Amino acid sequence: MLATVPTVATAMEIAPHRQAELIYLLRHDCGSCHGMRLEGGLGPALMPERLSDWNSEQLALTILYGRPGTPMPPWRPFLTDKEAYWLAARLKAGLQP
Questions:
Q1: What is the C-alpha separation between 60 and 31, in angstroms, rounded?
Q2: Which of 12, 14, 42, 83 could bond to 79 as cystine, CB 3.0-4.6 Å?
Q3: Quick one: DSSP state of residue 20?
């Protein structure tokens, strides 16, 4: 479990330049497995309809700690809890082009 579950308001406190870096990471690093449009590839699609059964905490934990036994790596060395929740919220809302 995460020590503190960031709220949506807290997640929005991420600086605009860091938000841009996170979107770049999502499109390029995550996109290398999940498809450049996040519609699937080696990894599953990360579209809102595909993630509808996942809550934000499940998604953030997967981002942070990966999925053992799968190619999904942990991103904990590069992301804070707040950033993982921010990414989860963006994925669930649908990442705009």
A1: 17
A2: 83
A3: H
